[in-house]
Amino acid sequence: MSDIKEARAIRYLLDAVNDASIIEPALEEGLYSMAIFHSQQASEKSAKACLSLLDILITDEHIYTDYLVKFVIPESKDLNKDFMKLLPDVNKLESYYIPSRYGVDRFGKIHYRKYDEKEVRDLCRSSMDFLELCFKFVEDKSGRMIPRQREELEQFFVYNYHKFIRELR
């Protein structure tokens, strides 16, 4: 049975997969702040997929780990330990949202951070592991197998949830 909560969750996963596709090219170019930013975005959208399946929408916020702890992890059953293991890295990625993307924030503060390549690669790997974990959470809750590849996921989304999609022209 498909519903609006599933449609939102799959759309968030599609957004997360799109962000994740940018991580490796950014790493190859040594653009560590961009790799961190897209890892954070993939993690955030993965978390929002899980939350939206639980009918919790946090569309304008970038702080999501508190919601994971309060709502997703208690509902995660066998995935609980995996979520807890990744939580410190996901939390660290969450804290990098502004400084990894914006050199000057909305208050005029100037950010600069020299990233350690090993730390960046570890955080990117954790982001990808978190994305996979969120796929498993959504599959468990929805009872559906969800494709991981971007093109197949997009087709799956459009085919199964077309009645919830608002096309913009």
Commentary on this structure:
With 169 residues, the protein is mainly α. It has a single domain (4-164), classed as Nucleotidyltransferases  domain 2 (Four Helix Bundle (Hemerythrin (Met), subunit A)), CATH 1.20.120.330. It is 69% helix and 0% strand. It contains seven helices and no strands. The chain has helices at 4-28, 32-53, 65-75, 80-95, 97-101, 117-142, 150-161. α1 (4-28) packs antiparallel against α7 and α4 packs across α6. It is globular. The two termini are 29 Å apart.
List its traits:
169 residues, mainly alpha, globular, Four Helix Bundle (Hemerythrin (Met), subunit A), 7 helices
* Number of domains as seen in the coordinates: 1
Provide the low-confidence segments as ranges: none
Largest sheet: none
Q: How large a portion of the residues is in β-strands, by DSSP E?
A: under 5%
The gross shape turns out to be globular
Q: What is the radius of gyration? A: 16 Å
The beta-strand count equals 0
Please name the fourth-level CATH homologous superfamily.
Nucleotidyltransferases  domain 2
In the CATH scheme, the class would be Mainly Alpha
Determine the CATH topology: Four Helix Bundle (Hemerythrin (Met), subunit A)
Determine the N-to-C terminus distance.
29 Å
Helix content: 55-70%
Query: Oligomeric state of the chains?
Result: single chain
What's the SSE pattern?
HHHHHHH
Architecture (CATH level 2) name? Up-down Bundle
Mean pLDDT: 92
Structural class by helix and strand composition: mainly alpha
Number of helices: 7
